[in-house]
Amino acid sequence: MERTTSIALIGAGWWATSYHLPSLTSDPRVVVTAIVEPDADRRDKVRRGHGIEIAVADVGELLERVVPDGAVVASPASAHADTVRALLERDVPVLVEKPLTVRAEDAYGLVSLAEERGVELTMGYTAQYTRAAQAAKEWVGRDIGDLVQVVIEFSSGTERLFAGEDDADAPDEQHPSGYSPENGGGQGNVQLTHALGMLTWLTDSEFERVAAFTDDRGLDVDVVDAMTFRLRGGVLGVASSTGTVPGETPVRHRVRLLGERGTVEVDLAFGRAWLWREDGVTRHVGPRNDEPGYPAEAPARAFVDLIRGEGPNLAPGRPAAAAVAGVEAMYRSAATGRFVDVLRVGTPSE
């Protein structure tokens, strides 16, 4: 009889309950043993709806009762550092929703802790779980020569999420507390992090220096971001992100990497990637007919594979920590009007 893997879900917001929980409960290898959620109504709704044995308000209570085989952390970003640290200290593998943390120092600390203890730390950067992303990483390392420049655009309609009334069950409605400054909200932390995480993972690089502007459009968090940056090693880049895309206007989530011998472009929203080489060779990878362009349930499935030793870590923590450092530097630059040197995440040997 196949062994089962026990998973605790930390957070019962709309993303966790719409994607992570269905992915886990539909997997015959998994038993969701606990739900951790401070809101009693949400916690009880999930417990009753899915027959979950343990329902507690915080991770401390969880670990007093059970040490699961893994944990999916989908709580507000401001709570990630303490929650993930507590789990890693008990050698519990963790899948964390983006961003890893709000502060780069905390992100680096979690990565170092996971590496020191030999515990898996992986991220919910959904676009990295596509065949297109895997192909793009291979192309960047093999086909385009030395990287010269990066161009990022991440436009979305998130402005309406940053103001209005909370509704935890409706992803398209407003969630002001979930996306508040106190909880690590704003376009940089909520949206641009996807693209910066893709960049640092594709290139195995980090941000070195950043200059940026942000605009809150009268809200409590940033809605429009523009940054220019230098990666370690000298690659230059620009990134823009806005949450103001209206109604039926298409969003655009693109990372374009220009090398000395070719170019790679990744479409994070629709799971596509392109390669153009100097010798005329072109490649395109996209979703199959039976695959979603944005596989929102894939991170949880891949996490189960990872902790069972049946698959790789498709979204490791170290590039995610580098993305946190980039976003943090963007905010600091915008606030001070100065260039900002970025905290070095480094390598595992450092």
TrEMBL record:
| Region listing for Disordered, in residue ranges | 164-189
On the tree of life, the source organism's domain of life is Bacteria
| Record's keyword terms, sorted | NAD
Molecular function terms, GO-annotated: nucleotide binding
Under InterPro entries, the record lists: Gfo/Idh/MocA-like_OxRdtase_N (IPR000683), Gfo/Idh/MocA_Oxidoreductases (IPR051450), GFO_IDH_MocA-like_dom (IPR055170), NAD(P)-bd_dom_sf (IPR036291)
Q: Which residues form the GFO/IDH/MocA-like oxidoreductase domain?
A: 144-265
* Gene3D superfamilies noted in UniProt: Dihydrodipicolinate Reductase, domain 2, NAD(P)-binding Rossmann-like Domain
Q: Where is the Gfo/Idh/MocA-like oxidoreductase N-terminal domain positioned along the sequence?
A: 7-125
What is the protein name given in its UniProt record? Putative dehydrogenase
Instruction: Give the originating organism.
Output: Diaminobutyricimonas aerilata
